[in-house]
Amino acid sequence: MIQALIDSLAAAALGLPMTLALWLGGVAIGIVAGFLIGALRFFAPVALTWPLAAVVEAVRGTPFLVQCFLLYFGGPFIGIDLSPVVAGLVALSAYGAAYFSEVFRAGFMAVPKGQLEAARMLGLSRPQTVLRIMLPVMALAVLPSLVNLAVILIKETAVLSIITVPELTFRVQGVGSATFAFAETTLVLALVYWALTEATSWAARGLERRIERRMAA
């Protein structure tokens, strides 16, 4: 048992950098893409928002595992031949972008109309209104939801082991398959993912307090 735990921890150390890289990349790309999609759906004409809404609902309405399979195994049939790591990053980013876009769209809608009317009375342009009024108000409102989605994406990286991405779950499961010590390897996986989610939540709470102090100043 002790040896299995040691081997699992060593495998986790090998797979953790890949998990963190995919997660951070997926969250960063997902937030940027999600913000653009959310802004377009809020500000753009209806003719453009409908196709975007259809794509977002398609991504949100299908399991992440199915999306990974379609991209990695189905992609070559239409000329999209990606490595496991690239396919994993693309899938994670697209999945995150769909959910992040809904958070940002709700954030735009949550800005009080009185503040927008005041901005117009002051002669602020739309970009100035977005930067000076909407974004600061929206940032504090959407932060908890963004953190929640980021935590979900940490755990979704485990699905990428199905398409042979050498991340945390793939590495540790390899130890379980070789030693049949599945209880030990599962325990190590659970503890590592729990530590990652707790660290993310702790960092987000600090960021939220900083934003609150800046807005109160």
SSE layout and pairings?
Elements: H1 2-43, H2 46-60, H3 64-72, H4 84-110, H5 113-121, H6 126-156, H7 168-179, H8 182-216
Question: What does this protein structure show overall?
Answer:
This protein has 217 residues and is mostly helical. It has eight helices and no strands. Helix 1 packs antiparallel against helix 7 (168-179) and helix 5 runs antiparallel to helix 6 (126-156). The longest helix is centred in the first third of the chain and has 42 residues, at 2-43. It is flat and about 70 Å long. The mean pLDDT is 88.
Shape: flat
Written as H for each helix and E for each strand, in order along the chain, the element string is: HHHHHHHH
Name the poorly predicted regions. none
The proportion of residues in beta strands is: under 5%
DSSP helical segment count = 8
* Alpha-carbon Rg, integer: 21 Å
Largest sheet: none
On the 0 to 100 scale, the average pLDDT is 88
Number of strands: 0
Helix amount, in percent?
A: over 70%
Gap from first CA to last CA: 55 Å
What structural class results from the helix and strand content?
mainly alpha
